[in-house]
Amino acid sequence: MPTLVWSDALSLSMPVMDHTHEEFVDLLALVEQADDSTLLARWQTLIEHTEDHFGREDDWMRATGFAPGNCHTTQHTVVLEVMRDSARRGSQGELDWVRRIAAELADWFPNHAQTMDAGLALHLKSVGYDPVTGELEAPSALPAQAITGCGSSSCHDKTAANDTQAPQRTEAANEPLPEGESLV
Description:
The protein is mainly α. It has helices spanning 15-33, 36-63, 71-91, 95-126.
């Protein structure tokens, strides 16, 4: 059984975002259930989905007043870097590393969705941004200064360097993590 299963608790009441998140959860489950012969292909499918998924969210943030280096976008960059590094390691035979990163993603994703993505969803709604069409209903509601934080209530508008929600790891390591340390 997969570590993470889609549920209403992960819903952000924004259909386009919820659909993408449900796809992520489903693809991650396929990775977790893969045997060694299908693992890397399923991992690559998850990476491709995640590139598109994060890219769309990053586009929405740029369109609605987030600074280019905001901590939400930075976390997307770090997670993709770790996933791509894991694909390289997996192609060199380190399949257990790919499985470990998949398990880390299953632990990481609910918090990311319920903090950073929930903050983004609320922000998009508050400025009247339609993520499907890219239309902005209330341009006057855009922030006067670029948002450098993640947009969640736990983050407010801290700088990425001081943000408690920013990833703790800025590059993929070549060695296994110490017991109890998380990738993000």
